[in-house]
Amino acid sequence: REMSGVLLVIDATRPDEIPRAKQMLDLVGPRIPYVVLANKSDLAGALAPDDIAHRMGLAPEVPVIPTVATEYRGVRDALLVLAEMIIGVR
After folding, report:
1. Neighbour-count burial for 46-60, b at 16+ CB within 10 Å, e otherwise
2. N or C: which terminus of the chain carries fewer CB neighbours within 10 A?
3. What is the distance between the alpha carbons of residues 28 and 53, in angstroms, rounded to a whole number?
4. Residue 1: which pLDDT band, with cuts at 50, 70 and 90?
5. Residue partners of 35: CB distance under 8 A and separation at least 6
C-alpha cells in the first residue's frame, strides 16, 4: 500500500519464470514505478533485456536492466533509475 517503487529481479536464464514475474507486476498496479532487473545476464543463454521486455509485454518506457548480482554489476544503475522514477525526473 505504501511502497514508492519496485525492483523486480528475474533470472534471465529462466524464460519459464516470466509469466510469474508478469503476475507479480500485475499485483503492484500501474501507478507504482518499477524496474526489472535481468539477473544472471552474463551467463550463456540469458535473454537480452529487449527480449524480456517483449515477453513480459512491458511498455517501452519500463527499464529492463541487465545485472550480475554476485558482482554487483547493474544493481546500482537499477537503484538510481528507480530513484529517478520515484522523484519524477525520469
Report:
1. bbebeebbeebebee
2. N
3. 17
4. low
5. 5, 6, 7, 8, 62, 63, 64, 65, 78, 81, 82, 85
Q: Which residues contact 78 (CB under 8 A, 6 or more apart)?
A: 7, 35, 37, 63, 65, 67
The answer to pTM > 0.70 is yes
pLDDT 10s digits, 11-62: 999 999 999 999 999 998 888 999 999 999 999 999 999 999 999 999 999 9
DSSP state of 9: E
**Cα Rg for the chain, rounded, in angstroms?**
13
Write the pLDDT tens digit of every residue in 57-77: 999 999 999 999 999 999 999
C-alpha cell at 84: 529517478
| Residue 31 β-bridge partners | none
